[in-house]
Amino acid sequence: MVFFVTGGSRGIGAAIVLEAVKAGHDVAFTYRGGADAAKSVEEQARALAPERKVKSYQLDVKSSADVERVADQVLDDFDTVHVVVPNAGININNLVVRMTDEEWNDVIATNLTGAFYIARQFLSTMIGNRFGRIIFVSSLGAGGVSGQANYSASKAGLIGLSNAIAKEYGNRGITSNVVSPGFFDTDMTREGMSESNKDFWLKHCPQKRIARPEEMGGIVTFLASEKASFINGQVIGVNGGLDWAP
Ligand SMILES: NC(=O)c1ccc[n+]([C@@H]2O[C@H](COP(=O)([O-])OP(=O)(O)OC[C@H]3O[C@@H](n4cnc5c(N)ncnc54)[C@H](OP(=O)(O)O)[C@@H]3O)[C@@H](O)[C@H]2O)c1
């Protein structure tokens, strides 16, 4: 199958790209600014599975025109797309009373509206194929985390978006699901997570550790597979047993 993954140049997205390639899929993935990191992921993918086709594209998911242009390019290059993983995301933390319009809008535009643009753009191809898998990347933050109102709202919004798609297109062979990571060791958490939230996690997570990005890849390839054909409109936590943050 052909996967399309946004934000595949680093962290969880890169792990999803590499796991998909290992599982025998071709992958188109995007990066926003990190061209060198994207090239490195392409090289790692080729080393893992030289026979697979893997290609990266520059894309800012906040622009629907860019999403349309890149999607057309991907469809030209790969002929079709079966599995779409809108994974690109950012956080800009602040208390609600101090949060600026820009901080709110940037996070919503990237995490929620960007994911909507991606899903909308590929749905017509999936409807034509009478097959498709959309796997959104939410967060345990969807439940509401102090200092992350913009991020929490964006990640909760993805669940509503996914459920609506699951209902609109379930009869066309398309499933839409959400994976909801806990605390993974990536640039996002290294740079944007408070020490108190890290301490909370290590104290209360039953597995007493943070997750490695590779621990996300398997659930995505499973949800994309025939084995997951009747899983639709679900939220799958990948969180070591802790689905809450203060
Ligand atoms: N890490 C965690 O513990 C955790 C927990 C819950 C949920 N998540 C979610 O998992 C996803 C991946 O997170 P991560 O930790 O792997 O993040 P990360 O290491 O910061 O990587 C973010 C990726 O998104 C891309 N990106 C950012 N803004 C973009 C935009 N406007 N347009 C297109 N691409 C953009 C980045 O591209 P460039 O590098 O090229 O700019 C990068 O590839 C996010 O949706 C995040 O909210 C993560």
The dominant shape is globular
The run of helices and strands is EHEHEHEHEHEHHHE
Let me know the largest β-sheet: 7 strands, parallel
As a percent range, the share of helical residues equals 40-55%
Number of helices: 8
Mean pLDDT: 97
Q: Which kinds of small molecule does this entry bind, naming each only once? A: NADP nicotinamide-adenine-dinucleotide phosphate
How far is the N terminus from the C terminus? 39 Å
Q: What's the CATH architecture?
A: 3-Layer(aba) Sandwich
**Which parts are unreliable, with pLDDT below 50 for 5 consecutive residues or more?**
none
Let me know the number of strands.
Answer: 7
What structural class do helix, strand and pairing data support?
alpha/beta
Number of domains: 1
Question: CATH top level?
Answer: Alpha Beta
Q: What would you report as the Rg, rounded to the nearest angstrom?
A: 17 Å
Annotated CATH homologous superfamily? NAD(P)-binding Rossmann-like Domain
Task: Assign the CATH topology.
Answer: Rossmann fold
Would you write up a description of this structure?
It contains eight helices and seven strands; from the N terminus they run βαβαβαβαβαβαααβ. The protein has a single domain, classed as 3-Layer(aba) Sandwich (Rossmann fold), CATH 3.40.50.720. The protein is globular, with a radius of gyration of 17 Å. The termini are far apart. The model has no long low-confidence stretch (mean pLDDT 97). A seven-stranded parallel beta sheet has the order 3-2-1-4-5-6-7, sandwiched between helices. The longest helix is centred in the middle third of the chain and has 29 residues, at 101-129. It is of the alpha/beta class. Bound molecules: NADP nicotinamide-adenine-dinucleotide phosphate. The site of NADP nicotinamide-adenine-dinucleotide phosphate has 31 residues, from α1, β2 and α6.
